[in-house]
Write a structure and sequence with these properties.
- The complex is a heterodimer.
- By secondary structure, chain A is α+β, with helices and mostly antiparallel strands.
- Chain A is built from 6 helices and 9 strands.
- Chain A has one domain.
- In chain A, helix 1 packs across helix 2.
- Chain B is an all-alpha fold.
- Helices cover 69% and strands 2% of the residues of chain B.
- The longest helix of chain B is centred in the middle third of the chain and has 31 residues.
- The chains are: A alpha+beta, B mainly alpha.
- At the A-B interface, helix 1 of A face helix 4 and helix 5 of B.
């Protein structure tokens, strides 16, 4: 039998069948690989959070990293509610940075456990749109405050883990949790030479600035040549999100253990 | 037209019918990924595999494809392999997936894949189409690797992240910033094309002169 390949019915049937045949295995592949990908993504998040707080952790030793991570006290911004199925779920609050900068008590903290962060990360593993989480720990009698902060980069979200000392006067560490910036250009924000330069910076009242023509200053870091938008995004996320929120967090929790 | 041999296809795709230098396809990614050798390698390997398998699939089903939705089906088949590649990278090579960012997804819109599945695969049997896809990818890889081997040392002083110039090259700010950015690839790809074309023309002239 010769098929008439210009026939409308044949075209529709062909399109339907070929779409099902190709899309169904992809769905299976997605469902099958998501737990593996999520597991890696979660572990990276744990290790980078610990590094941003100046704590040692190694992705090659996940159990130790997880145990260390368990000891952190974790908060988010939002309220406790229930999801559609009636299970308890966190409703993440919207952040009004200007209001919080003026009145730290506007930051509505909610203590959360790891399962809330697990779920939030699984839901956003492809977009990097991580809700704000705060981490508080005490090392040698001194408090340390950290958190995850997300803002717009050039192609998508940039998410940073930023940790500061007890009074917020000095940055302990910064790590890039998520980025989809241009490989070889903006994508280099994930490399250690870039993230390493934030440790020990002392942000001024207005936050961090770029070092100008090799002149290193106490609150300055080197931008990436050819990646102005991405470098500015990192600076803005630290200045306008991380430092503002961490300051409010310290105002609420500082001095308490 | 008779089916070309494996050797003919290999020669054509790497030299006188090179997808980048002669067909001038896939230029967007040529500009974008060639500032680092490792990114270039991964991108071109992924692209060779996708072109090969997409060509194979298209060729295998070539007598059945409804003509009106030919291109829709091509894109669907290409997307299938690209998404599969992306899922596999995400799960089993997450470091690579993170460092490549959006580029794996962009293989879908690579003109070379579309070009081979539209021209070669519908006219030839599956196995030679698979070979044609892979060798097209190799032709693309050859040009891109050459460019990245020039760009990475001049831009970052390294090859595959191993330093080839002293660290002062970058720290003193004497590195070529333009080599990091896409426009430098325009100059490079044009220069390579020029050298390549000149050589082909000289060869052709010699041949013409010889037979006189």
């Amino acid at each position: 039998m010769k098929i008439n390949k210009d026939n409308h019915v044949f075209t529709i049937v062909f399109t339907f069948i070929s779409t099902i045949v190709l899309v169904f295995p992809l769905t299976l592949a997605y469902v099958g690989t998501k737990p593996i990908a999520d597991n890696y993504w979660r572990l990276q998040h744990i290790v980078k959070t610990l590094h941003s707080l100046g704590l040692s952790a190694d992705a090659k030793n996940p159990d130790q990293a997880r145990a260390e991570y368990e000891t952190l006290t974790k908060y988010t911004v939002g309220t406790m509610g229930t999801d559609n199925a009636g299970h308890p779920a966190v409703t993440f609050g919207r952040l009004d940075y200007n209001a919080i900068a003026q009145d730290p008590s506007k930051l509505q903290l909610l203590k959360v456990d790891d399962s809330v962060i697990d779920k939030a990360l699984q839901d956003n593993s492809y977009t990097g749109n991580i809700p704000v989480f705060f981490y508080v720990t005490t090392v040698d009698g001194q408090q340390r405050f950290g958190g995850d902060f997300t803002g717009p980069g050039l192609w998508g979200n940039v998410s940073l883990a930023v940790g500061v000392n007890a009074d917020g006067s000095q940055i302990i560490g910064t790590q890039v949790l998520f980025n989809v910036e241009t490989p070889g250009l903006g994508g280099r924000i994930g490399e250690p030479w870039f993230t390493g330069q934030f440790a020990g910076l002392k942000p001024a009242a207005t936050g961090l600035v770029f070092n100008q023509s090799g002149q290193k200053v106490d609150n300055g870091f080197d931008a990436i040549a050819g990646a102005t938008i991405t470098s500015t995004a990192v600076k803005d996320i630290i200045n306008n999100h991380a430092l503002v929120l961490l300051k409010a967090l310290i105002a609420q929790l500082g001095g308490k253990s | 037209m008779s089916t070309p041999t494996f050797k003919q296809v290999f020669r054509a795709n790497l030299t006188y019918d090179n997808p980048v230098l002669v067909q001038v396809l896939g230029i967007c990614s040529t500009l974008a990924v060639t500032n680092k050798v490792d990114n270039t390698l991964i991108m071109t390997i992924g692209m060779s595999l996708v072109t090969g398998f997409a060509s194979y699939t298209l060729s295998w089903i070539r007598h059945l494809i409804a003509r009106r939705v030919r291109m829709i089906f091509q894109v669907l088949a290409i997307t299938f392999y690209v998404v599969l590649l992306q899922l596999i990278l995400n799960a089993f090579a997450p470091e690579v997936a993170r460092s490549l960012g959006p580029y794996v997804g962009l293989i879908i819109t690579n003109c070379i894949v579309m070009g081979r599945t539209e021209t070669f695969a519908p006219a030839n049997p599956p196995l030679i189409s698979l070979w044609d896809g892979i060798t097209s990818g190799l032709g693309y890889m050859a040009v891109l690797l050459l460019m990245s081997v020039i760009r990475e040392p001049l831009a970052f002083g390294t090859i595959l992240n191993f330093p080839v110039f002293p660290p002062e090259y970058v720290s003193s700010g004497n590195n070529w910033t333009i080599m990091i950015m896409a426009p430098s690839a325009f100059f490079l790809v044009a220069a390579i094309m020029w050298a390549f074309k000149t050589r082909t023309l000289v060869k052709a002239a010699a041949k013409a002169g010889g037979t006189k």
